[in-house]
Amino acid sequence: MIVRAVQDVFDSAISWATFRLRGGWPVLIGLFLLAGVAIIGLMQLSLAGTHGPNAPPHAALYEYKLWAWWLCVIQSLILGFGAFSAGSSISRDVRSGMMQSNRLMPVRPTVAVWGYLYGAFSTALAPALALFFIGLVVYPRGHHSDLAWIFINLILLLSTALWSTLLALGALINGVLYNTFFIAIGVILMINHSFALVPAILLMFAVYYHAGTLLLAGHILGSTLSNIALAALPLFTITLFAGAVRKYRYPLRPAFGDYLGILLLLLWTAANYIGLRHRVVLYHRVIQLWRLFGFARVPAARLEFFVALATILLLGTIPVSGAAVLDQLPRRLRRDVPAPADNAAPEKLFQPPHAPTAPARDTANSAPAENRRRRRPLGLLTLLSALIIAVLFCAMGSPYKLSPGPIVETGAIILFAYLGVYAVRRAAQRTSGPSSSIISKAWIVTVWFMPYVAAGIVDACLGKHRPMPGKIIRDISPLCALYYHWYSVHLPYARLGVAFAALFAGLATFMVAAAERRLRRRAAGAETFASPAMTASVPENQ
Amino acid sequence: MNTNQDADQLDAGRAAASGLAASERNGAPHAEELTAPLLDVRNVSVRFGNLDAVKNASFALHRGELMGLIGPNGAGKTTLLRAVVGLQEITRGDIHVSGLPVGRPGDPYCARVGFTPDVPMLYTKMTVRNFLRFIGRGYHVSHAETERRIDFWLEKLWLTEKSKQRIATLSRGMRQRVGIARTLLPDPDVILLDEPAGGLDPVGRMHFRDLLIYLRNVGKSLIVSSHILSDLAEYCTHVGIMSRGQLVRFGSVDQVAGAGEGGRCRYGILLAQVDGQPRNVAQQITGVSDVQLARDMLSLEYAAGKQSAAELLSHLIGAGLPVAAFFPELPNLERAYLSSFTNVQPGDQALPSDIVPAEQA
Hints:
The structure holds two protein chains of two kinds.
Chain A: H1 2-10, H2 13-21, H3 24-47, H4 59-96, H5 98-103, H6 109-141, H7 146-174, H8 178-192, H9 199-217, H10 223-249, H11 258-277, H12 279-290, H13 301-315, H14 317-328, H15 358-366, H16 378-397, H17 407-432, H18 436-462, H19 468-474, H20 478-487, H21 491-529
Chain B: H1 3-17, H2 31-35, E1 39-48, E2 51-61, E3 66-70, H3 77-85, E4 92-97, E5 100-101, E6 113-116, H4 128-138, H5 143-156, H6 172-184, E7 190-194, H7 202-217, E8 221-225, H8 229-235, E9 238-243, E10 246-252, H9 253-259, E11 264-271, H10 278-284, E12 289-294, E13 297-303, H11 306-318, E14 323-328, H12 333-339
Helix pairs in contact in B: 4-5, 9-12
């Protein structure tokens, strides 16, 4: 049975098809041979001058040491290409409609998503394998350990798994041009070294430092932090993979619903927390790899803290939106209702928040078909999580003595901001269905970011001698309000930020109430004019 | 015919349909299997935002029943079909295929239902055979069995010569056939075809009609969404008419075709010679209406059913008409279809201009 399960995972129809579409065995063997011959050929050319009477001493050793670096770089590029192929194979199927055909097959969503990742990646695996074998010969000759090369490959594989899962998720959500988007983001990150401003990303980059120390010193330096970074990769990968599976299973629902979104948020918060705590150490380690590009200055602690807070705030909208959408879904198919035999399914054990509502849900399902709606206290749960995260983050920021005591204000601003997003998404879902995501994103852009732009324009027009109107406009944005709180400057205006956040949350809540009232009225009207003649009936002899 | 004989026949038919020898099929269907519906759709609603794409649709199909699903563009036909296979989440209701609830992708019901959309979903870079091999793998059919089924369906769909060609090089009609082969290869109990004859030439349509009749005869349940009503009247056992998301009529072809005209049927009578006033003579017969005469062909309406047809024939002969040939015309689905929209309020719904009448099809 286990063998069958493993066979299903590694030899699924989708991995087979994806592999075939990328050329199959001929391409795989061809790439293996091509990579091997090309690298060995180039290596022989570069080593040609290291022999003979005129060759400097240890020339071959230095050449092998250089090749050890080159192998690392080439391996990263090959695996990076593999990660992009996973995303592109999914976006191809989404665009052509084959994704729907594949959804019709009796293949479990987990196996299907894995099939896309594994099938597409297998093409890149061939040259990567060739390089791996070459590295096993080259490393000892450059006085490096074989184990170091094996470990470097493991690190690269783990980070590739994270990237390919992220791209696959992106392709499942958007379908089109996601690769380009991610390439653009990657380039921006590299150019502006803004990755160093986000503590969580700084932590992730530590794995490459990990690989570098293996290469330079032959052993791991600062292993605890590096190991934490290494452990974070699969944790994020698994969470993103779960999101991708969910999106494959329910294409019209958000990839990250309530609990999964909160899990992602918690992981991100934890990574930021660790990154922030060890920011100087991490920055200096990572910077060693990037010094060549001129990144040497450690950014200010408060700036890093604020960036982390902003990313957490933004990521927090995922579970909030997910909760709003799920709360608005009418009772769906029985797929969401466990059949008696399913009650003992292991995955149910990991959903404790469902447990208290289970009896109520069963009662609802035994009621007549009409008026049954799946009600879960998701909104409340998510908002509570947001509050907990806000308080936790305040605790995280306190060691930096950025501000005397803005915990309550921070919590209030985050809570109101989330409440606004929740209400807008809920209202949009009620009235416009699939386009609700666009409406809630427009809300975030308008309320969170636009005030900053508007304030800039106002400041430019009025000049710096009258800064007050610009600051008031900035306070409309929860991000700017938080910034003022944590910089403990202009506190009188900062309090205004809380008031603005509350005002917008109230406005959004009013929108929900209005939308629901309008729909109820419309539904009542429709029932009044419904013609009994239009109701389908099954003939008695059927 | 008793139930056991039915079961034997169905078993043999199903074996043939899956490309198998009858002896290799295990487990003949029980009596309950023959009486229980293969497809059971109850109170299904699908809502997109404020739009009710499908509203409270209910129907059931048994073995050997073929339902033609008709309605104007945007009536909800495709949404209903997608909901039946689980590609479209439903707002309310229940769907069962072969007794299994329709749910998430990968659930067991997936192996029991097949769906071909109007534009088939195919890996165009693959050859026809490789694509079907992929489908066989996806449905956990063994390699040898897949090869046998591929050969069977390629021959049945006139695709044998194209088996080694890449799908990208095939014409639209050929791709449509590959799409149908993809649906039939896993041997589903319930087959849904959305506008299947769209890309087919006249010969292809004939083959397709024969295929549908064959599938119906081997005990599959089918739904065919089409605008070509004359074709549907030929091979459907049941008809469903959809309008604005509602299944406004569902029943056997005779029931639906007769529903608009009080269970009446149109008969054609070829006269050996036209003497006197045959039109007036026919009008004298009780129960006859709408009599028309075109050269030597008399056409009239009378009660539907075998008994009524025999009764009418005896009346015509008794009245002294020289009947050379007598035949009831195919059920008039066009009239039934159009009559389904007579209650539509002006401005509510455009009349079904996309329906192809029999003479144009």
